[in-house]
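for the recovery benchmark. C-alpha cells below, seq after
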C-alpha cells in the first residue's frame, strides 16, 4: 500500500544580512591608523570622549564621533574604502527595490575608535539615525585566542521570538545570539537595528577597532 507524503516547503523570511570582508590595503594602512588612534587617545580629556553611555563601557577609551574626519591621508583613505564597501553592501540588498536609473553614495556620518584594555567590554546597544554600521578590526589583540573574549555578540532582533518555549521552539533558543571572532583587518557591516555588544576582553595587547555609522543618499 502506497502512503502519500506531504511535501513541506521551507521558506525563510525576514532574514538579517551581515557582511564580513577584509579591509583593502590593511597591511599598508594599519600602522599609520594605529598611530593616529594613539595620538588622539593621548589627548583625550576623558576615557569616553563621546560622552555616550559611559556606564555601558568598561576599561576602554572611546573618541569623539568624528575620528575618520581627521586631516590625515591614511585616515581619509580608510574612510573612502569603508564608504565604498558600505555602498556595495547597500546595493547588494537593495538593488531590486531601487529605481533602475538611481545612483547612490554612502556617507559615514559618525566614526570613532575603541581601545580596549584587559577586562574591557561594551554592553548591548544599537545605533540609531543611520542605516548601516560597521566595525573595522584594526588590531584585535588576543581576541582570536580561546578564552580571551573580545568577541562581538549580535542579538536576535525578533523581540517576541521566545515569548513561549516548549520543545517546538528549541531551534529559537539556539539562535538567540551570534558571536563573531575578529581577525586582523576584518570588517563586519550590519544593519543599524541589530543589537550587539563587545564581550569582556582579556588580553595583554590592546584591542583596537574603528567603528562607524553610515547613511545612503540617492541622486
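predicted aa per position
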Amino acid at each position: 500500500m502506497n502512503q502519500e507524503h506531504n511535501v513541506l516547503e521551507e521558506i525563510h523570511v525576514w532574514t538579517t544580512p551581515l557582511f564580513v570582508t577584509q579591509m583593502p590595503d590593511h597591511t599598508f594602512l594599519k600602522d599609520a591608523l594605529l598611530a593616529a588612534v594613539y595620538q588622539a587617545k593621548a589627548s583625550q580629556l576623558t576615557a569616553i570622549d563621546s560622552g555616550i553611555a559611559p556606564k555601558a563601557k568598561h576599561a576602554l577609551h572611546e573618541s569623539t564621533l568624528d575620528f575618520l574626519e581627521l586631516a590625515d591621508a591614511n585616515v581619509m583613505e580608510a574612510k573612502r574604502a569603508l564608504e565604498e564597501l558600505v555602498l556595495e553592501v547597500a546595493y547588494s540588498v537593495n538593488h531590486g527595490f531601487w529605481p533602475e536609473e538611481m545612483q547612490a553614495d554612502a556617507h559615514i556620518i559618525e566614526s570613532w575608535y575603541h581601545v580596549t584594555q584587559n577586562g574591557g567590554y561594551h554592553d548591548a546597544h544599537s545605533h540609531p539615525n543611520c542605516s548601516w554600521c560597521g566595525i573595522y578590526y584594526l588590531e584585535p589583540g588576543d581576541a582570536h585566542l580561546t578564552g580571551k573574549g573580545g568577541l562581538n555578540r549580535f542579538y536576535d532582533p525578533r523581540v517576541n521570538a521566545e515569548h513561549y518555549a516548549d520543545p517546538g521552539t528549541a531551534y529559537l533558543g539556539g539562535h538567540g545570539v551570534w558571536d563573531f571572532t575578529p581577525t586582523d583587518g576584518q570588517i563586519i557591516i550590519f544593519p543599524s537595528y541589530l543589537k550587539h555588544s563587545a564581550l569582556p576582553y582579556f588580553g595583554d595587547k590592546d584591542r583596537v577597532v574603528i567603528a562607524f555609522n553610515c547613511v545612503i543618499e540617492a541622486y
